[in-house]
Each structure stands twice: as C-alpha cells, then as structure tokens.
Amino acid sequence: MAHAFDQYDPEDYSVIFNGIPLEGFAEDDCIDIEFDSEGYQDQVGADGRVVRYKSNDQRASITFSLMATSPSNKLLSAMYNADIKAPNGLGVGPVLIRDTRGVTVFAGTQAWIQKMPKSTLGQKLGNREWKIRVAKLEAVVG
C-alpha cells in the first residue's frame, strides 16, 4: 500500500485586498477567516417536529497579522484613512485569498477594513492585526 505524501508551504497562499497584494505576514497563524452565521438553523415545535431553515447571512471576518515592518501596513492605513474621509465607501473593494497549489479559495466583492490595528511598541518587533469585514464571502476549502 502506497503512502500519500503532501506538502504545505504558507507562501502558496496569496491575499489580495482592493487590488493590493498583501505581503510581510507574521509567523504562526497569520490568517483567520470566520463566518458570522451557520448555513442552517433548526427549530423544534411542541410536538417534536423539527424544521430546518436556511440562513442567507454570508458575512465574514478576515483577520490577518502582518509584521510591523510590512510595507502593506502603510497601504492599508492609507486605504482606511481615505475610506473614513471620503463619502460613498471609497475603501470598499474585493478580497481574494487563495491557495495557488490547491483548491482553497475565499472571495468577496464588498470588503472593507473595520478599524485600524492595535499598535504595541516595545523592545521586540510587534505585529499589526488587521480585520476586514466582508458582506458576502464565498468559500471553497480544499
């Protein structure tokens, strides 16, 4: 029986937000994607009959950590500040996260930076944790 062999490389993932390829990710867990709602809910009646109902809420949060020295921090800061100062959602745009070697893809057409990251300054280099909200995120996890 042959044994399967797989390989993983975090550099195989690309993150593009509002046309900007992001770079300079922090070590360890650098990208976290979480949907707000479950795809289906259920409810039980007094007689025990169960009904399942679909949730059409596909909102999600994408949180990613960049090293403090990442050039993407400056670009994201400029995008956030322009969005705050300009009317009509200047900072809203597409987001795409994909595995260039596999089939994992997360994509949304309306995404925005929720707030500026917390900044901690000290002797060691810190990270910047950015949070992007997505109005409707579609996903294929491979």
3D shape: globular
Could you tell me how far the N terminus lies from the C terminus, measured between alpha carbons in angstroms?
24 Å
Order of helices and strands: EEEEEEHEEEE
The count of domains is 1
The chain-level structural class is mainly beta
Low-confidence stretches: none
Strand content: 35-45%
CATH class membership: Mainly Beta
- For the record, the CATH architecture stands as Roll
Main beta sheet strand tally, sense and closure: 8 strands, antiparallel
Tally the helices: what do you get? 1
**How many DSSP-defined strands?**
10
Radius of gyration: 19 Å
What is the CATH topology? Pnp Oxidase, Chain A
In round numbers, the mean pLDDT is: 92
The helix content, as a percent range, equals 10-25%
